[in-house]
Amino acid sequence: MFTYEEIMSLNELEMNVYQYVLKNKEKAGYMKIRELAEEAHVSTTTVLRFCKKMGCSGYSEFKVQLKLYLGSQIEPETDVDISNLTDYLKRFKTEEYMKTIDQAVALLKQSAIIIFIGVGTSGMLAKYGSRYFSNVGWLSLCIDDPFTPVFGEHGEETAVVALSVSGETEQVLNMANGLKLKGYRLVSITNTPNCTLARMSDCNISYYMPVRKTARYFNITLQAPVVTILEILGNKLYCVAPQRQDMTAEAEKLYGEGKEQ
User: Fold this and answer.
1) Average pLDDT for residues 4-16, to the nearest whole number?
2) Distance (Å, whole) CA 15 – CA 192
3) pLDDT 10s digits, 210-250
4) Phi, psi at 159, each rounded to 5°
5) What average pLDDT does the chain have?
6) Domains recognised in the chain with CATH numbers
7) What confidence tier does 251 reach under pLDDT thresholds 50, 70, 90?
């Protein structure tokens, strides 16, 4: 129902409406505009602007379109709701989204070294991204300790991939700022583009998942889109990896020796 271009046009307040509707699709279709505004902590004017950016003439048409969309959806045969992930994968295939992916690839392929940064869950995904990029022939490393010193001035030889759900994590922002001051290119992967990390980046890739937190405020927002982004970037970089030919030849040699034995 929501296209990538429409989501990208939303400001921070309108994004609150989007996030609320995503998490309360059934309920939102029957709410009055004032009720939705109160629940999303915005004004009714913001809700109307959101509706118009979604291609609707007003709130009434938006509710009709939302009900039609919900009526056209086939309920999954599992207790796990994968509709948000399905919606994301549909957006991923759009031309506009792929342009952003290609922009990130263009920045990364100019670098001899790629540094992944993140903390917490994003730190674990940063490690995965570093290993995946290494697998495709790119010199990559991960920094998940915000106090790790980074010496040397490599400038444009180095790129940074920063991961953060909120894009407001202080430790990640400090690391990203310090590395950017060294002249490193910065690509960020965040949940929305309306965050500090996205705004300070040379290229940002956002995935727009409903934010979920446990009772103890641990973030459990779906991270499958991040893995998808990392693997797509890695596969695209594989085609231009500087070590690809040498690695392929070495692998073929080892494989051939194994067969002979």
Assistant:
1) 88
2) 8
3) 887 776 667 778 888 999 999 999 999 998 765 554 544 55
4) -125, 155
5) 85
6) 4-73 (1.10.10.10), 92-251 (3.40.50.10490)
7) very low
pTM metric for this prediction: 0.71
Count the neighbouring beta carbons within 10 Å of the beta carbon of residue 127. Answer: 16
pLDDT of 2 over the 70 cut:
yes
Backbone φ and ψ of 77, nearest 5°: -85, 15
Nearest-CA neighbor of 113 among 81, 149, 139? 139
Report DSSP letters for 216-232, one per residue. Answer: T--B----HHHHHHHHH
Task: For residue 43, give Cα distances in angstroms to 35, 234, 247.
Answer: 10, 42, 57
Q: Cβ–Cβ contacts within 10 Å for residue 1, how many? A: 18
CA–CA distance, 18 with 12 (Å, rounded to integer): 10
Q: Which of 210, 197, 133 is nearest to 162 (CA)?
A: 197
Q: Are strands 203-206 and 158-163 parallel, antiparallel or unpaired?
A: unpaired
- Write the DSSP symbol of residue 39: H
Torsion of CA 36, 41, 46, 50, to 10 degrees: -60
Task: Determine the average pLDDT of the residues in 36-46.
Answer: 94
155 pLDDT exceeds 80?
no
Type of residue numbered 28 = A
Query: Which residue has tokens 């010193």?
Result: 149
